[in-house]
Each structure stands twice: as structure tokens, then as C-alpha cells.
Design goal:
By secondary structure, this protein is of the alpha+beta class. Helices cover 42% and strands 24% of the residues. It has 3 domains: 65 residues, Orthogonal Bundle (Arc Repressor Mutant, subunit A); 144 residues, no CATH class; 83 residues, 2-Layer Sandwich (Alpha-Beta Plaits).
């Protein structure tokens, strides 16, 4: 087996760097590329010829505004990634596109577009299946899951075929048959929105809880579906809890969204200066205290009994404020004694 020499490796790395530069900007002059690569313009011309030999359409033009330019993406040769590498790259880019850092998300989307342009047709369909079947809400670090599971579900969404998997329900694990619609990325986890064939209704499933995931051969005709991201967010934030509550906050929606994680509440704008917040909890007092701590004026919309909870809480707070931190009248403290 032959081993590449140091000069050959250096040339390969330089040519790859040149390719990366040509992908970053529409036109580069020869002297600009030579300066960036630390070589002479003659070496740049030779490296451009190497790229052309590999099938990359690098065009050269003379005169003012002229230089080297990479041709249309559809003419680019296949990117040298195997199936698993392409899947892993696509998943990572999609996770980055929904991440907490806006600039990183934009860069991830640009990179995903480049990946789609240069992948072979077979792999391009797989990546587009994932990209076209994913929606998101919120931002942050997500629970790690097997990329193959995501791809299996994405293919099922794309091909409109039933999916099957084992899923925990209470203390047991049950087999589920669904018509998959969309994968939804939240601020922490991935979910599948699907029509549950055994329960005859829409359901969302945490992908990290699924086991033995498979795409079946039975096709289905898509039903009228709810908005995937909105449905999953509302389910995660409220429907899974014993109690649900709605509030009208006297603050802009953007301000409140910055205070509440997307997985904890659904915030809908009601004009420019107000918003509606829907959330759930095992205890109504818990969600009420969280709304109070946001620091905005608010009205209780639902449920009616929460209004009485507000009165009780207000009475306790007023009582505490009325004492102004002092002992109640007649209370000399635990250690005081009367003198006789």
C-alpha cells in the first residue's frame, strides 16, 4: 500500500483550503487567493487546474472585477461521505440550526445547504427527508438520540408509510402503530407528531423513549394535520399536566418569551403590548407563582378557581407586608418572659 508523501499531503490540504475559499465568496482574484494560501499566483493556477481535474467547475475571467469563481452547485461532484457520515452531519447541522446561538444557527443552515448541493443523489434524498420532516421551537441542548432512529422516522414521514415502535406507557412498554407526520425539535428533546392508529387520534412521542423503531411498507394518505411545532409545544407545556392555566399578561410577547422556556409555556401575542400565556402543572399554585415572579401585571383567563387562589395569595402577601417584618402586637418573642 502506497503512502502519500508530506508534499502530497500538503498539496491536498492546500487544494481543499482553496475549495473552501471559493465556496465562501463569489469571486476571488489570483493575488487574493495567493495571499490567503501563502503561495505564488502560479501555484494558485496549478491548484485551480487540480480542482478542474477533480470535476469542480472553476471559472476564470480577466479584467476589472475578474478572478476565479466556482460554478453552479448542481455541477459539483459528489461529496465523499458514506451514508453514516452524511446522516450524522445532517443531524448535527439541523441541531445547530435550532440552537441557542443565532449566528451558529444561520451558519448551520448555510452549511446544510452546501451539503445538499454536493451530495450524491441517493444521499441527498436521505438528507432532504430529514430536513423536510423537522420543525422546532425553543432553543438549547437536546437529549442525545441515535441518528439512525431520526433517519428512519424522517424517511417514513417523507415516504408516507406507517411506522412502528415500542413505547413506554405507565409501567409497561407497548407496541405502537402510527402514521408519522413531522419530527419536531424542542429546546431539549426530539418529538414525533403522528396519527396513532390504535387510539384514532393525533399524538406526539419522545423519540429518545422509542425502541425498535421501523418504517413499514404500508402507505397512507396524509390526513389534515395540526401545526406540528405548535401542537407539540402546547402538549409539552400544558396538556401533559393535570392542570392547565391561561393568563393575559400586560407585556409584549417577545419580552415574556425571553423569560419562559419554550417547553414550559406557550406565549401568543395579543397586540403589541399584551400576550396570552398557556402553561400546565401538577399544582395550580405552582404555575401561579411562576407567573407572579415574571413581574408583569396579569389577568387570569382560565380556570375560574385560579382567581380564588390569587385572592388567597394576595391576602397572605398583604398580611406579611402589613407586619413590615415586625412581631405581631403582644408577641415578645420566643425568649421573652414577663416580670412579676
Amino acid at each position: 500500500m502506497s503512502v502519500a508523501s508530506g508534499d502530497e499531503r500538503g498539496t491536498t490540504e492546500r487544494v481543499l483550503t482553496l475549495l473552501g475559499l471559493l465556496q465562501q465568496r463569489q469571486v476571488w482574484t489570483g493575488p487574493e487567493l495567493a495571499a490567503r494560501l501563502g503561495v505564488t499566483p502560479r501555484t494558485v493556477r496549478r491548484d485551480v487546474e487540480r480542482l478542474r481535474t477533480l470535476g469542480y467547475p472553476v471559472h476564470a475571467s480577466q479584467g476589472v472585477g475578474g478572478g476565479y469563481q466556482l460554478g453552479p452547485g448542481q455541477d459539483l461532484p459528489p461529496l465523499l461521505l458514506d451514508d453514516e457520515e452524511a446522516i450524522a452531519t445532517a443531524v448535527s447541522l439541523l441541531a445547530g440550526a435550532g440552537g441557542a446561538v443565532a449566528s451558529a444557527g444561520e451558519a448551520a443552515l448555510r452549511a446544510l445547504t452546501k451539503l445538499d448541493q454536493v451530495l450524491p443523489t441517493r444521499l441527498r434524498h436521505e438528507v432532504r427527508a430529514l430536513a423536510g420532516s423537522v420543525e422546532s421551537f425553543g432553543a438549547g441542548g437536546r437529549t442525545l438520540i441515535d441518528p439512525k432512529t431520526l433517519m428512519t422516522l424522517a424517511r417514513a414521514c417523507r415516504d408516507e408509510v406507517e411506522a412502528a415502535f415500542d413505547y413506554p406507557s405507565g409501567d409497561e412498554v407497548r407496541a405502537r402503530r402510527v402514521e408519522p407526520y413531522r419530527l419536531v425539535a424542542s429546546d431539549r428533546r426530539w418529538y414525533l407528531l403522528a396519527y396513532d392508529l390504535d387510539r384514532d387520534d393525533w399524538r406526539n412521542f419522545r423519540v429518545d423513549r422509542m425502541r425498535e423503531v421501523s418504517a413499514r411498507t404500508r402507505r397512507f394518505r396524509p390526513r389534515a394535520a395540526p401545526d406540528a411545532a405548535a401542537y407539540v409545544q402546547e402538549s409539552v407545556a400544558s396538556r401533559v399536566y393535570r392542570h392547565q392555566a391561561r393568563f393575559l399578561l400586560h407585556a409584549p410577547a417577545a419580552t415574556v418569551r425571553a423569560q419562559i422556556p419554550a417547553s414550559a409555556a406557550v406565549v401568543r401575542a395579543r397586540g403589541n403590548e399584551r400576550c396570552e400565556v398557556t402553561s400546565g402543572a401538577a399544582n395550580l399554585d405552582f404555575v401561579l407563582m411562576h407567573i407572579v415572579l415574571l413581574g408583569h401585571d396579569f389577568d387570569v383567563l382560565d380556570p375560574p378557581e385560579l382567581v380564588e387562589r390569587c385572592r388567597d395569595l394576595a391576602a397572605k402577601l398583604l398580611s406579611a407586608a402589613g407586619n413590615d417584618g415586625r412581631r405581631p402586637p403582644g408577641d415578645r418573642g420566643a425568649g421573652s418572659r414577663s416580670r412579676g
